[in-house]
Amino acid sequence: MAATSPPMTSVAAAALVLTPSPALNRISFPFSRRHCRSAAPPPRWRPTRCRGKPGVTEVVAEKETSPDGEEEEVRGRGWFMVDEIGMDILTIALPAVLALAANPITALVDTAFVGHVGSTELAAVGVSISIFNLVCKLLNVPLLNVTTSFVAEQQAVEAAERNEISIPQEKASEQRRFLPAVSTSLALAAGIGLMEMVALILGSGTLMDIDSAMRVPAEQFLTLRAYGAPPVIVALAAQGAFRGFMDTKTPLFAVGVGNLVNALLDAIFIFPLGLGVSGAALATVTSEYLTAFILLWKLNNKIVLLSWNIIGGDVVRYLKSGALLIARTIAVVLTFTLSTSLAAREGSVPMAGYEICLQVWLTISLLNDALALAGQALLASEYAKGNYKKARVVLYRVLQIGGITGVALATILFLGFGYLSLLFTDDPAVLDVAQTGVWFVTVSQPINAVAFVADGLYYGVSDFAFAAYSTLFAGAVSSAVLLVAAPKFGLGGIWAGLALFMSLRAIAGLWRLGSKDHKDTQHEQESYGPIVSGGPISSKDRAGVGGRAAEAQPSRKNIRKERLRPEGDDDEGIKGFGIGIGEGKMPCLNVSTNVNLDGVDTSAVLADASKTVATIIGKPEAYVMVVLKGSVPMAFGGTQEPAAYGELVSIGGLNPDVNKKLSAGIASILESKLSIPKGRFYLKFYDSKRSDFGWNGTTF
């Protein structure tokens, strides 16, 4: 019993949960009787689901640390210090940089081979690739980012539950697990990929409405290339899953093999077989299917890929979050499309110089994207586990590394941009124009780093709404500036508009990360844990009850006010600050004892708890909820039988004998002390994969 139900102490009154130090047995709070008008039973307990915000979990007592020491640890002192978190970030980011470069490299290889076929074919392939990327990017990138966050969250929660029930890591690693986020993502990817394929095939003629010699080869390339849409997005979904596991090496291996095969097939299909642009398209599509196959094969060794459990809330959550990121992607694409169209109006030479600067800028941004990815995966994992202090250190460290990287890139580009631009052209006029954009390319690098990293941190805490709205706002303001400045100042006005776009995103990111809405990462759960209430809470109740609870602690148990954090939780599981009792909700006493049922008279604890809550709320029909942390069984009981008792839940892995003893012990207490018939009492179990619910326990 001791192995599966570790000692815990936790007492809360009137819908409050307080986790005191082990020496404390129980705490009661005096509350106004006006909150106790209804005797309706509380809502039935449900296992916490991964919703982007961590549920309330067991809080282990810690030694108090000095404020200076905490702040020093939080800020991650030493901008150049290479600590464990810094190494984790770099370990994720460095392989990710190469994997992110896969798509540009694939396009570059196709362009290089087709360029030897003819200029018309080269131009046709360029247009086709642009259209394919535009259509796919709108849906593929949002799914990739959402998958990374959701998988990281569920992975962290699943690992925490596995540790809680003492499953050895070696044994767990040998088992294929089920994570709904992975199956849902792959199912959505397959569906979206098929829709993209059909749209591109049927619409290739319309999309390629070009009255020139380019039309036939462009339409031919795009039609064949469309068959690669499903494996592209499925591979991205799989990459998102691996990123959620903080594994960027496996995707790097898969895309590396795919690019190598693409280059080999290009050389065979285009020239020896004489297939031309069709050969280039077939080579690319074949390599994309191979990449997707490798990723799915590797992922299948860890995860159950397909399950009927993908139907439900996970799909809705993906669609909501994905829609927000689609809006964000549209804002980015439209802003850069507008800048390109305005540059094209300046003439061919200014347009060529602008394109050189833009391509250098986009290529360098891959480094910032990789840092954002690392921050997203680490922050999502720590946040889901409730490790707020470590999440805060991750936040600071990613911003620090991003700032250093941005300054370093700016310096390198400022000194070497002239040599780098020679790789694109040797036309003196174009080079002169490109040199005018060097300030934008270099000075914007630190700003870009902050903006990209902030995006990753939004995603890490599933703050997709702010990421979308802030980017839409920045895009609208910047587009207005572009429309006004470009006609007057030419490329200088365009650079100013793009610099403003990135600056607004960076400012919004820094503001958001320091705003009240994200202060929850700065409230580490100390020894006494959070005070929590479920259900709708009015601001008046928050202030009144939260204030009285905080005042009661120093006077009764010498608990400092600053060690208490009021926190509300509404019906949708959305957390906010404040505490209170919702109108029409009958308060109950939530007791987590520091004893097991093994040889201990738990009935005394239950009886005393019932008297305590009856005294607090002044009602003889008071009832209590008993919680034994570790195996997490729950029971409702009281001097008056509630309409429903809620579930008694155990998270997999309990010894059957322990289950039986636990069930019999609680059932006897409810019957003998509270006159609750055994027939009204039951146990409900679900396994550690959170996949299957079933009546596996002893039912009385």
UniProtKB/TrEMBL annotation:
CDD domains with a match to the protein in the record: MATE_DinF_like (cd13136)
* UniProt KW Transmembrane keyword: yes
Primary localization class, coarse: membrane
Q: Where does it reside? A: Membrane
The UniProt transmembrane annotation reads 178-202, 252-271, 318-338, 358-380, 401-424, 436-454, 466-486, 492-511
Does this entry carry the keyword Membrane? Answer: yes
Sorted keywords for this record are: Membrane, Transmembrane, Transmembrane helix
Superkingdom of origin: Eukaryota
Entry membrane topology: Multi-pass membrane protein
Which Gene Ontology cellular-component terms appear in the entry? membrane
Signal peptide: which range, if any? Answer: none
- The segment annotated Disordered runs over 522-570
* MF terms (GO), sorted A to Z: antiporter activity; xenobiotic transmembrane transporter activity
The record's listing under Pfam families reads: MatE, MIF
Extract the NCBIfam families matched here: matE (TIGR00797)
- Which family does the UniProt entry place this protein in? Belongs to the MIF family.
- PANTHER family given for it? PROTEIN DETOXIFICATION, PROTEIN DETOXIFICATION 44, CHLOROPLASTIC-RELATED
Record's protein name: Protein DETOXIFICATION
Upper lineage: Eukaryota, Viridiplantae, Streptophyta, Embryophyta, Tracheophyta
